[in-house]
Amino acid sequence: MEKFIKLMDQSELKVGLVGNPNFKTIMLPVAKESVFGEEAENLKVWGVDPEFGKHFVEGLQDKFQVLYFDYEGHRLKHPNPKNLTSENIVKDLLLIADEMNVKEFTYYGYSWLALVGLQLAIRTNRLESLIMGGFPPIDGPYKEMLIVTNRTYEQALNNQTSPVFNEQDKTKSPEKIEWDNIKVKINTNQTKQFVTLYENLKEFDDREIQYKLAIPRLVFTGEKDIITYGENFGSVTVDIVGTIQKNKQVLEHLGWDVEILEGDGMNHTKAMQPVTVLSLIKPWLVKNSNRG
C-alpha cells in the first residue's frame, strides 16, 4: 500500500507500507527511490546502491511490516528552511504513523536521520526499539555539524552565480576529488534547513536524556567513519567511529548494543548500504522483537 501524506508544512510525501500486519513494524525513513541508467552508474562509483530503498524493504518485509519513505529526498525537493527542527520532524514522523494506522514501531535512521530517531525516542512512548547508524547517541557532533552546515549555506549563497566544478567530476571516485576546491552550488533553502536543524540542537545534552530510553537500542558505525572537512567547510573533523569507540563502555552500561563494522573502506557511505546494514540489524530486530 502506498499513499501521499500531507506533512506539517503541507508538502506531500509518498509513504508505503508492506508486509504482514501481524508482524512488528519498522519505520524506514531512509528508503530512497531507485534510480537507473547513467545516474545509477554514477552512484555505484561512490559505493551507493542505486536501488537502496527497494533492497532495504525487500530485505525486511519477510519478517516485519515495513513503513517506508524517503524523508531526506523529500526535504531536498521540498525544503523547510525556517522550520526543520527536531520537534517538527518528530511531528511529521508521528503523523505518518497515524495516517498509516501504525501505533507502535521500531525506528531505523542513519546519519542525521539517526539523530532524529533519538529525538523521536524522547518525545513518544510509541517506539518499541531504536537503531541509530552513523551517529553517536552520546557526544554527538552537533556543534561540528552546525559549523559545516553554516559554511555550506554561506557557500551556497555566495556561489549562486559562480561556475561549479566540472560536471565530469561527478563520475570520479570520492578519493580523486579535491574537496577543498569544491564550490557548493545548490538551492540555498536546501542547506539552510540543516543549519536550522543543528541550530535547534546546539544546546541539546544527549547524555542528560539517556535515562528516558528504556527500549532495546542499537548503534553502529563503520570503522573508517571519520570525515575531515577542509577550510571551505570550517576545518572541522566529524569523528563518528572515534566518539562511539571512546564511549562504548558507557553506552553499553546505559543499555545500548554497540557495533563497529569492519571491512575494506567501511566509511560513512559504505556502512549505510543495505547489504551491510541488513546483515546486522535484521538478526538484532528478530532477537529484540519480543523485548521492550
Count of DSSP helices? 10
Question: What share of the residues lie within helices?
Answer: 25-40%
Shape: globular
Number of domains: 1
Mean pLDDT over all positions: 91
Just give the CATH class.
Answer: Alpha Beta
Largest sheet, in brief, is: 8 strands, mixed
* Rg value: 19 Å
The name of the CATH architecture is: 3-Layer(aba) Sandwich
N- to C-terminal separation?
28 Å
- What spatial order of strands do you see in the largest sheet? 1-2-4-3-5-6-7-10
Secondary-structure element order, N to C: EEEHHEHHEHEHHEEEHHEH
Report strand %. 15-25%
Number of strands: 10
Q: Could you name the CATH topology?
A: Rossmann fold
SS-based class: alpha/beta
- CATH superfamily grouping: Alpha/Beta hydrolase fold, catalytic domain
Taking pLDDT < 50 over at least 5 consecutive residues as the criterion, the unreliable ranges are: 165-171
